[in-house]
Amino acid sequence: xxxxxxxxxxxxxxxxxxxxxxxxxxxxxxxxxxxxxxxxxxxxxxxxxxxxxxxxxxxxxxxxxxxxxxxxxxxxxxxxxxxxxxxxxxxxxxxxxxxxxxxxxxxxxxxxxxxxxxxxxxxxxxxxxxxxxxxxxxxxxxxxxxxxxxxxxxxxxxxxxxxxxxxxxxxxxxxxxxxxxxxxxxxxxxxxxxxxxxxxxxxxxxxxxxxxxxxxxxxxxxxxxxxxxxxxxxxxxxxxxxxxxxxxxxxxxxxxxxxxxxxxxxxxxxxxxxxxxxxxxxxxxxxxxxxxxxxxxxxxxxxxxxxxxxxxxxxxxxxxxxxxxxxxxx
Length: 330
Fold this sequence. Notes:
Elements: H1 5-18, H2 20-39, H3 46-71, H4 79-95, H5 101-126, H6 130-149, E1 154-155, H7 159-165, E2 168-169, E3 172-173, H8 174-192, H9 194-204, H10 206-211, H11 216-242, E4 244-245, H12 253-263, H13 275-294, H14 299-328
Antiparallel strand pairs: 1-4, 2-3
Helix pairs in contact: 1-14, 2-13, 3-8, 3-11, 3-12, 3-13, 4-5, 4-6, 4-11, 5-6, 5-11, 7-11, 8-9, 12-13
């Protein structure tokens, strides 16, 4: 059966409306690169571009599971301290307790899953908003990391560990390859899996999900656990880069992660978001931060600029959501 020209035109218009955010982010990314390449002489150097990718990777690895969390209508603001605590815990397990590196990695990731899962369980069992439970974790984990390390770096003695996870592979930092693998994994889950479809449905209409017999409690717990797992992984990756666990690492990472997800088009109201948008959001945030630093912009002004970008993204996403609903007749 052939599609009429009117129907085809309507379908094309809907596609453009649906992907306006990603198209806008691509344009914004090209504009930022063009501007900073003119204002900062070293911006396009190989070393600086690698630094941009590396900083983007640490954010992106957590941002992709965070996209699912926000699509489901939840939030996790504890990921920054979770990264720092996992880094300190991993370094202590390896150096003080002589636990093999693979086992230490599994233990800190399992602990991260437990902490995230507890936040989801508190929401399911006692209706505690995830903002509140993760706010409590934000304070407890940062304080716990400082106490356990005496606010001093904890050295990871293995050179092989630093070379493999903190080094390069095929010309790119290992952490960048891990970010790309994380992107592929969560893109597959979002687009092709029943699990991903259930998460979108949960954020769009939780009552309908419950009526269909879908285990929404298990969904909420699992998505909160996923941010804990990947935050712990990033903590280990930062240890590999620095050669030590540091309680002050990843300060403000939760801001960058949530900002990248929002800039990427995921709605805080839940039910809508794409991993491609998050990837572009991560790159925009990383390029913007790097360009501001190279141009010598005052750190306080940098925070103002980044806050303005997030506010603009929220306003644009709200307008696009209304337009998309009008275009699809919803």
